[in-house]
Structures are given as C-alpha cells and as structure tokens.
C-alpha cells in the first residue's frame, strides 16, 4: 500500500465529505492535486500554509484512488512529489489529522 498526503482546511475536507470527492483548486488550475510524501509535508506547510489555521493532513491510500496519480518533478525545489490527476474519492482517505503550519 503506497501512502501519500495532502494538506487542506477542515472546511474544504468537510465539504468533500458531504460530496464524496475532494477537489482542490489546483485540479482546475493545473490539472492535478498536489500531494506529498511523509517527509515532504513539513516543507509544504512551511512554504504554502504559514500562518493558516484549521488545517488537516489527509492520509491517502493510493490503491483506493479512482483517479490516476504519479510522481512529478517540482523544478522549483528539484524534488519529485505525488500528484493526483482527478478528484480524490473520500474513501481513499484513510486518516484525517489536525496539523499546524510552522510559524
């Protein structure tokens, strides 16, 4: 079982729970949802979520995803990140944990 992670707000996750799918704004803008490996989550929090509250880390079982996913290079930091190329079905999310961004 391959596990990947995605950070979002509790509000966005609650909306997804009601709809059965999670759709991040990046899906419409970039055609994929940004995710991370475990060791990348803290850096993502530091770069993109500083000062934000009410965040959750979604733990995603890639074997349960109905949308395709793959690792792609993020040239800005020369690292590969997992990307989901479609909505994330909520039953692929195996854990939801409150998380804080580094101040």
TrEMBL record:
This is Uncharacterized conserved protein, DUF952 family. It comes from Flavisolibacter ginsengisoli DSM 18119. The lineage of its organism: Bacteria, Pseudomonadati, Bacteroidota, Chitinophagia, Chitinophagales.
